Amino acid sequence: MSAPGTINAGYLENLLAGQPHLPASPLAWLNALRAEAVDRVGVLTVPTLRDEEWRFTDISQLTKISFHPVRATVSLQAADIERFYIEEATTRLVFVDGVYTPQLSSGITDNGVAVVNLEAGFAAHATAIEPYLGRLTEFRDNVFAALNTAFLHDAALIVVPRDISVAVPVHLLFIATQKDVVSYPRCLLLAESGSAVTVIEDYVSLQEDAYFTNAVTEIALVDNARVNHIRVQREGAKAFHIANCAVTLARASNYQSVSVAFGARISRYNLNVQLAEEAECAVDGLALISGRQLADTHTCIDHAKPHAVSHQMHKCIVGGSAHAVFNGKIKVRQGAQRTDSRQSSRNLLLTGKAHVDTKPQLEIFADDVKCTHGATIGQLDNEEVFYLQSRGLSETVARNMLTYAFGAEIIERIPISSLKCQLEQTVLEQTTVQP
Amino acid sequence: MIYKDSKILLEVRGLCANVSGTEILKGLDLTVKSGEIHAIMGPNGSGKSTFSKILAGHSAYEVTGGTVMFEGQNLLDLAPEERARAGVFLAFQYPIEIPGVGNSQFLRLTYNTVQTHCGKEELDPLEFDDYVREKMKLLEMSPDFLERSVNEGFSGGEKKRNEILQMAMLDPRLAILDETDSGLDIDALRIVANGVNQLANKDNAIVLVTHYQRLLNYIVPDYVHVMEAGRIIKTGGKELALELESRGYDWVGVENKAAARATA
User: Fold this and answer.
1) How many degrees, rounded to 5, is the angle at CA A331 between CA A329 and CA A332?
2) Do A395 and B59 touch (CB under 8 A)?
């Protein structure tokens, strides 16, 4: 019997096999960043249930499949992917199995605004992005972020210059097309002082076999910037999806995020948000899963400075024998006075075998703060079902409506109406039990 | 209003019921004819709200004896939604909030469900919109009620108006209004009462369940019943409500016990 470490090492070595073939970047610091990430992968191991941060999420199945980076890209036509388009979001970057696909993309390079593949942004923005790329995410302690960084090549780069408001939402579409392929989606969003932008990060699949998405997103909001971030995880049924997102908010900036998880056999989303003075964030989430799915969301909202506001509502609707995990940490550091933080975790179990682990955590090191948090787990409220029945609706219709409403409350917060309708339809279909 | 030769809508005989093993109703009798307005009054814990929930079919209450006939059918055999479709309506004391479901979508679904079961035509969204806006005028409701989620963030008065709006739309034969006056300021009370009065006609009946006489200044009952310990122990006209307001409930119980002793 070999020690767990050996299995891990072999597995990670195997994942790294394709890395040396990556073309070198013209930027020395980027090559150094990748090399450092490769080194970190050599030191780190794949987490197990023994790691505190992974104690509810068993990813051993991930290590049983030998994933490889994409060898030959599939040529897709617009017709193949049109159904994923979001009407309002005509600015679009498309990545197929992690590879940037220019013929399907419609980026922007205009007025200093860049919505481009990383390389294309080097000439104008290399200096601006250097302090953020690979620096916001703690890849040194996180094997998945380290792997992603080791493979850093194609990436969505969004730079919004000072006081510019980008009217059209940006759609970052990541499409999986091949079995046993691992892809490393990467996004960097830099919202300069006083700018505003809406970004949709969207993970979809054209096939139902196993594959592995290992994503990293970094978002930097400079003073007074405003970012709407919508994240849609609708991966294939056998997919593994592990994502790390790090957001840093400078003074008086505002970050609004809604993330929904419908897909993947096993998914894990780590979101870290750090707030400076007077910054505000709303971080809402919905996991809607069934069958044997597992969806794990770990968030950490770090009040590093005084007078910041954070609101979080995370909901899970769990059917079949699915398993949802939520771990939401709110940190209020020493000196972060007048922090206003509200967190709520609400969970709806649709079957006796459905399972949820929720752990809201408050770590407060300041004394003049307003922090509330709470968690509920349950079935539908019988009084609510009775109310609807007393209006003539059958019990099944009443239960469907309440289940739908439970999820729709989060979807409603998405500020793009066609996407909202599309996702409401998904919630409706997945929560409707036929009488 | 009491009409000559009007037919019986609701006939309750010897109704007994438990909730989690405790007997709440102990032989309740009540007859309601079409056109009539009844008020059921009584102290807290007398069983008024339990009675209204049992009529609507709440599953937490177990009926252990007696009968409830509604227009000739055994109401107790019907599921809550079947009672609603048959023409029984309960306005809740505490209407629930449903964030995520638009009020207009909800109202149209309930309206069309009940219509379909009565063999009538459904209304499409545009037709329904005209219909519901007309009904909303009755309750002086602003049209933006339709855009909001069901009862979410509504004030107490707005929730109660939304209840009566549903009554106006569903046009029930028997409407039970459970503490509809609680939490209403005087303006809201006047609007709600005015709406109810306009909905009352010779083919339907209204049962007002209320702790206070205040509502009865605006909706004048034909009969006032006093409930105590799970039974109706006294029935009178509208003047009984005024007497209860000035003298409280205790004397009714005392009088009732004395009468019982005399019969024994």
Assistant:
1) 150
2) no
Residue A1 has pLDDT above 50, yes or no: no
Is the four-CA dihedral B107, B125, A400, A235 of positive or negative sign?
negative
Beta-carbon contacts of residue A58 (< 8 Å; ≥ 6 apart): A48, A49, A294
Which domains, from first to last, does chain B contain?
Answer: 8-96+176-263 (3.40.50.300)
3-state secondary structure at position B109: helix
Our CA-based measurement puts residue B150 at a distance from the nearest CA of chain A, in whole angstroms, of 10
Residue A161: both structure tokens together: 């210059």
CB contact, 8 Å: A404 with chain B? yes
Helix segments in A69-117, DSSP class H: 78-81
Classify residue A165 by its DSSP letter: B
CA separation, residue B244 to residues A242, B38, B225, B235, B238 (Å): 68, 15, 11, 12, 10
Contact criterion met (CB below 8 Å) for B145 and B103: yes
Taking CA atoms, A10 is separated from A5, A17, A70, A151, A414, in Å, by: 9, 10, 20, 18, 42
Q: Coil, strand, or helix at residue B142?
A: coil
Evaluate if residue A18 carries a pLDDT over 80. no
Q: Does residue A6 carry a pLDDT above 60?
A: no
Tell me the C-alpha to C-alpha distance, in Å, between residue A85 and each of A200, A399, A425. Answer: 11, 32, 15
Per the CB < 8 Å rule, is B114 touching A392?
Answer: yes
Q: Does A385 touch chain B (CB under 8 A)?
A: no
Antiparallel, parallel or unpaired: β B8-19 and B61-70? antiparallel
**Each residue of A283-295: pLDDT tens digit?**
999 999 999 999 9
Q: Is the pLDDT of residue A411 over 50?
A: yes
Q: What is the least distance, in Å, from the CA of B245 to any CA of chain A? A: 31
Separation between Cα atoms, residue B230 and residue B237, nearest integer Å: 21
Distance CA A25, CA A61 (A): 34
Asked whether the beta carbons of residue A392 and residue B101 sit closer than 8 angstroms, the reply is no
SS3 state at A416: coil
Selected for mutation to probe chain B from A344, A387, A403 (highest B CB count within 10 Å) is A387
Taking a C-beta distance cutoff of 8 angstroms, is the pair B189, B196 a contact?
no
Closest chain A residue to B102, measured at CA = A405
> What would the pLDDT profile of A236-285 be if each residue is shown by its tens digit?
999 999 999 999 999 999 999 999 999 999 999 999 999 999 999 999 99
The answer to whether residue A10 scores a pLDDT higher than 90 is no
**pLDDT higher than threshold 80 for residue A409:** yes
